[in-house]
């Protein structure tokens, strides 16, 4: 049950915001299935509740076809359950750590997508050899340290590895992919694009040795894509 000082009932402003994030996070889990980024019950999406120290995340071990907005759980930024009838995802501590230490992050995604996991298994960053990768990630996708689920070690690795990087994706060594975004949708997009470039770059290595893009070209591509490309509203050109 939520603390007495937190009213998440549907008629309140906070309750309405939580309900909106619940619906959004539920829908976005379907995108992980659609793009083939998850198997069985692995993987998760979370979304920060705007204006509150709360986030919504998938419950642990629940099939994707059983997910509903009501099934989602609400946690505080320490990862403690605030609202919901089921246990939060086993990755909740990692998500919570990211939200506590990155105020700019509004969404976090974790997948075990095939090609990205292959790069993580050999602890190799994905080199920036494609313009699409420069557009989306502004350079290589880095590898974070090996860490076990159970505490905030994974979250610390995510935050420390992405510090100073333009990438919104990190390959946690011998584990899988974590992505961040301005909201949950943005983080899901990063997860989709991470697997796409991981696959293309892997295949390129079967043909030869891909040449990294020049740093100047990467900078120009990233700047254009982030600030000029697309028909979105100001601040979200994609």
UniProtKB/TrEMBL annotation:
<protein>
    <recommendedName>
        <fullName>L-ribulose-5-phosphate 4-epimerase</fullName>
        <ecNumber>5.1.3.4</ecNumber>
    </recommendedName>
</protein>
<comment type="similarity">
    <text>Belongs to the aldolase class II family. AraD/FucA subfamily.</text>
</comment>
<keyword id="KW-0862">Zinc</keyword>
<dbReference type="InterPro" id="IPR050197">
    <property type="entry name" value="Aldolase_class_II_sugar_metab"/>
</dbReference>
<keyword id="KW-0479">Metal-binding</keyword>
<dbReference type="Pfam" id="PF00596">
    <property type="entry name" value="Aldolase_II"/>
</dbReference>
<dbReference type="InterPro" id="IPR036409">
    <property type="entry name" value="Aldolase_II/adducin_N_sf"/>
</dbReference>
<feature type="domain" description="Class II aldolase/adducin N-terminal">
    <location>
        <begin position="23"/>
        <end position="202"/>
    </location>
</feature>
<dbReference type="InterPro" id="IPR001303">
    <property type="entry name" value="Aldolase_II/adducin_N"/>
</dbReference>
């Amino acid at each position: 049950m939520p603390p007495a000082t937190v009213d998440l009932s549907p008629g309140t402003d906070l309750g309405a915001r939580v309900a909106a994030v619940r619906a959004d996070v539920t829908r976005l889990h379907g995108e992980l299935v659609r793009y083939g980024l998850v198997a069985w019950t692995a993987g998760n999406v979370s979304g920060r509740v705007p204006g509150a120290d709360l986030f919504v995340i998938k419950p642990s071990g629940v099939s994707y076809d059983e997910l509903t907005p009501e099934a989602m759980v609400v946690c505080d930024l320490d990862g403690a359950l605030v609202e919901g009838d089921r246990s939060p995802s086993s990755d909740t501590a990692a998500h919570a750590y990211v939200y506590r230490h990155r105020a700019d992050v509004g969404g976090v995604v974790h997948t075990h997508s095939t090609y990205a996991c292959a790069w993580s298994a050999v602890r190799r960053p994905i080199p920036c050899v494609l313009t699409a990768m420069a557009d989306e990630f502004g350079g290589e996708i880095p590898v974070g340290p090996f860490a076990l689920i159970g505490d905030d070690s994974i979250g610390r690795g995510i935050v420390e590895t992405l510090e100073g990087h333009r990438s919104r994706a990190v390959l946690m060594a011998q584990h899988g992919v974590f992505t961040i975004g301005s909201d949950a949708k943005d983080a899901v997009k990063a997860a989709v694009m991470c697997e796409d470039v991981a696959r293309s770059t892997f295949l390129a290595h079967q043909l030869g040795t891909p040449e990294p893009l020049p740093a100047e070209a990467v900078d120009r591509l990233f700047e254009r894509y982030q600030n000029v490309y697309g028909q979105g509203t100001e601040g979200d050109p994609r």
